[in-house]
Each structure stands twice: as structure tokens, then as C-alpha cells.
From TrEMBL, chain A:
Residues 5-101 form the Rieske domain. The keyword Metal-binding applies. Coiled coil: none annotated. Gene3D superfamilies: Rieske [2Fe-2S] iron-sulphur domain (2.102.10.10). NCBIfam families: MocE_fam_FeS (TIGR02377). It comes from the Bacteria. InterPro entries: MocE_2FeS, Rieske_2Fe-2S, Rieske_2Fe-2S_sf. Keywords: 2Fe-2S, Iron, Iron-sulfur, Metal-binding. This is Rieske 2Fe-2S domain-containing protein. It holds the Pfam family Rieske.
Length: 104, 362
């Protein structure tokens, strides 16, 4: 059973971009796709724990800012070296302009 | 004075120095200086496109086709020399920057184009695509960190004979061939085992076997034709045309401070003319590249303009860079603790107190 946490407002994120979100000491990355859908993943790359919020969002891909490892942020799937471990993802829902992520 | 042999041992990835670097917090990799560029501008600079790299790749491979054809036409006469000289630099030197940019996945927007040029460039520059991807990943995490960085070209003290021999491919090429044979037999060197994950190793071995088959075909063609002409096109250009790879590459970090976490202080940006920047695909903007590895090569000049006030001054030319590098490397032969201290301009933000520009370990 997920606990829904308000992470940000929809306007806080530009289309095709990502922002960081912290909750109880854990980092998350919140994405807005080019189609205006919202997604959430762990905040750090599974390769060397770089912050993904400084990375580049291209379509459904987030690219890590240090070693250019790529994930599909809609599924968390790692797209090959140097990222070999998938990214944890979290359910998202949007209500009245607020983005909630499901934790736990 | 530190003994040369003892100090050189500290570069080993399988010695104790790497553990010391980890314990000292030098090998974390998550903490590096980045100039403050507004997110929207950064997104603009990071944006990928296929156009510039397709244009440059057509020119690169097209020029190789033209020079190679003319070299073959005039083969047997001195007229072939300038054409193979040009072909060799395009093959043996320009492949280094294509390996680099496509390895980062930033040259093209299309992942397939990036991968295709990466595989070709790897073959030309004789670097296993999987091993070198992981070694370069480590280089970015631990740039010039003793015991961690597998890509330190100029140690302190420098192995001068090796450096000079490499301008003619006399060390790196035999080592690359030895490694390819080793990989073909399903093995890695001890150092490669420290950074190539188990799950990636099958790819290393498969590529090595394919490459050996290509080399065998080239040798067979030489034997059958009674001429080295086939090898002048494939393999040998890495030997006779690889010198510019080192002319460019040594400017990146030679003589700079080790165990420094701020890339402004252990890396050079060198201004070069258009021809050099084409061959080197703007890798001369190397401080900027280490700071922001996601910026495509064709946007690096813009990034440089954006952040140059926060960097130590760029070197105005290759000549200016080597006027610093050569004396520094020669001085390090006698005093390995010496390094080039770069000074940030007044007002430039420091990374943090732990790395204020002074090497932490001598």
C-alpha cells in the first residue's frame, strides 16, 4: 500500500525536464514528459549515485550528468553501459495541479 | 625526495593507492566543480542533434576515401606519401576524438549512429569498445586520482621513452594487440578486471575475436598481394598516423596536479585552429568537457564563452600549452612532487575547502 506524498506542483517542472524531491532523507527525481505526463524515480543514478536531476531528459530517457548512462524513466529500465541496474520507479498521480508520488 | 619507482607504483590500479584514495574521499566521484549555468541554458547546450556530427563524419570518412584512393593510385612512388600521411592522421589520430565523443553518447542524437561511429573509431584507434568505455567512465569519476584513474598518460616522473615512442605507435599499438589476443582467449588484464564488470566481459571477448579475424584477413591480403598496401589502409595507419593523437591528448592533463577534485585545476582548455578542432572534435575544451560531460562537442565553444570567467585562463595555442608542459614534465623527472598550479581568476567560486587547488597527496 503506497503512501501518497505531495512532491511538487505541475508548473514546477518544464515539459521534458526533471526536478529533485527529498522526503525523509531520500532523494527522488520527478519528471514531466513531452506529452505532459508525470513520472518519479529514485533520485540517484544506479551506477555511481550521481544526482539525476542535473541530467538531460530526452523523450522518455533520462541521461546521467556524469557518465551519460541512460534510463527509461517511465519504466526505470537501464539502457546499457555504464548503467546496468534498473532505476527504482514510483507511481505518480496528479490532483488539482499537485504531483503526488506513491512511496512504500 | 620520493623515489621514482615507488611513486610510479602508486599509479597501479591493483596496488594500495586506490584504497587510500577511497578512504580519503578522493574517489567518490559525486563531488566535482560545476559552474553555475541556468538550467534552461544548460538544457539548450545539452540538446542533441545529428546534423553537425553527420556533416563531420561525412567529411572525415570522405576525406579518408579520397586520400586513400590517391595513395593507392600513386603507390610505389613518393607521391603516395602525402596522401597516406593525411589518411593516416584521419585514421590513427582523428579516431581518438570520435571514440571519445561517441563513447559519451553525445556526438549524435541517434544512439545507433553514435554506436556505429564508436565501434568504427574503436577499431581504428585500437581500443576495445567495452574496456575503453569502462576505463573512460573511471577516468571521469577519478580524474588524475592516483591508483584509480586508468587513463593517466603522463605520470610523475614521466616514462619519457614510452611517451616519445608512442608518437610512432611503438608502445600503445603492441600493447593493444597483446590485449586483443588476451581478450580473444577470454581474459582481461588485472587492471582491467578492476573496472570492467563481469556482465560486460563477454562483449570484450567477442569483439577481440572479430578484430583478430579482420587483422588476419589484412595480413592474408598482404601475403597474397605481396605488398603491405592492404595494411596501409587497415591497422598500420594507427602506427604511422597516430602521432597527432598524442600531440592533442597530452595537453589534457600532463604536468597537472593529481588528487585534485576541481577539474579547473587538473585539466587544460587549449584554443586551437579550425583544422585541429575538426580533427580533435573540440576536445580541446577539456575543462568544460570534464565539468559537463553531457554537452555535445559542437556546443563546447558556447559553453566555454558562458563560463570562462570562472576558469583559469585557457591556453591560447598548442604552442603555449607545450611551453608549459615540456618544462613541467622535465622538471618532474627530477622532482615528482612538482606540478603546474593553476590559479583561478579573482572571484571564481572554489569547489570547497577540501580541494582548493592544491594537490592533496604528493
Amino acid at each position: 500500500m503506497s503512501t501518497w506524498i505531495a512532491a511538487c506542483q505541475t508548473d514546477d517542472i518544464d515539459p521534458e525536464d526533471v526536478i529533485p524531491f527529498q522526503h525523509e532523507g531520500v532523494g527522488y527525481a520527478i519528471y514531466r514528459s513531452p506529452e505532459d505526463d508525470f513520472y518519479a524515480t529514485a533520485g540517484h543514478c544506479t551506477h555511481e549515485r550521481m544526482l539525476l536531476c542535473d541530467g538531460l531528459v530526452m523523450d522518455n530517457t533520462i541521461e546521467c550528468p556524469k557518465h551519460n548512462g541512460r534510463f527509461d524513466y517511465t519504466t526505470g529500465r537501464a539502457d546499457g553501459a555504464p548503467v546496468l541496474v534498473d532505476l527504482p520507479t514510483y507511481p505518480v498521480r496528479v490532483e488539482d495541479g499537485t504531483v503526488f508520488i506513491g512511496i512504500g | 625526495m620520493v623515489k621514482a619507482r615507488e611513486r610510479l607504483q602508486r599509479y597501479s590500479l591493483v596496488g594500495p593507492e586506490g584504497e587510500r584514495a577511497v578512504e580519503a574521499g578522493l574517489a567518490d566521484g559525486t563531488d566535482w566543480f560545476r559552474s553555475d549555468v541556468p538550467r534552461r541554458r544548460m538544457k539548450e547546450l545539452m540538446r542533441r542533434s545529428d546534423g553537425p556530427a553527420i556533416r563531420d563524419t561525412v567529411i572525415w570518412l570522405g576525406a579518408m576515401a579520397v586520400f586513400g584512393t590517391l595513395g593507392a593510385v600513386f603507390w610505389g612512388s613518393w607521391l603516395a606519401v602525402p596522401f597516406f600521411a593525411a589518411y593516416g592522421v584521419l585514421y590513427g589520430s582523428a579516431s581518438d576524438s570520435r571514440w571519445h565523443e561517441c563513447g559519451h553518447g553525445t556526438a549524435f542524437k541517434s544512439r545507433r549512429l553514435d554506436d556505429a561511429v564508436y565501434q568504427l573509431a574503436c577499431f581504428m584507434v585500437m581500443r576495445n569498445p567495452t574496456v575503453s568505455r569502462w576505463s573512460h567512465t573511471r577516468h571521469h569519476t577519478d580524474t588524475l586520482i592516483l591508483g584509480r584513474d586508468p587513463e593517466i598518460q603522463v605520470m610523475r616522473p614521466a616514462r619519457l621513452a614510452k611517451l616519445l615512442a608512442n608518437f610512432f605507435g611503438l608502445v600503445d599499438v603492441p600493447v593493444a594487440l597483446r590485449d586483443t589476443v588476451l581478450h580473444a582467449f577470454g581474459r582481461l588484464t588485472a587492471e582491467q578486471r578492476t573496472y570492467v564488470p563481469d556482465i560486460e566481459r563477454a562483449k570484450v571477448f567477442r569483439t577481440a575475436r572479430i578484430w583478430l579475424a579482420i587483422y588476419a584477413a589484412v595480413i592474408a591480403a598482404c601475403v597474397l598481394t605481396g605488398s603491405i598496401l592492404p595494411a596501409m589502409f587497415v591497422g598500420l595507419p594507427r602506427v604511422y598516423g597516430g602521432y597527432m593523437l598524442y600531440v592533442y591528448g597530452l595537453t589534457q592533463h600532463a604536468g597537472m596536479g593529481e588528487n585534485v577534485l576541481d577539474h579547473r585545476l587538473n585539466t587544460r582548455t587549449v584554443h586551437m585552429n579550425r583544422v585541429h578542432r575538426f580533427l580533435y572534435w573540440n576536445m580541446n575544451y577539456h575543462v568544460e568537457h570534464h565539468m559537463f560531460p553531457m554537452i555535445p562537442y559542437h556546443r563546447l565553444p558556447e559553453l566555454h564563452e558562458e563560463i570562462k570567467d570562472q576558469l583559469a585562463p585557457a591556453y591560447p595555442s598548442l604552442w603555449a600549452a607545450y611551453k608549459e608542459i615540456i618544462p613541467a614534465v622535465l622538471r618532474q623527472l627530477k622532482d615528482p612532487t612538482y606540478y603546474v598550479r593553476r590559479e583561478l581568476p579573482p572571484g571564481a567560486p572554489p569547489l570547497h575547502a577540501r580541494s582548493d587547488g592544491r594537490a592533496l597527496a604528493q
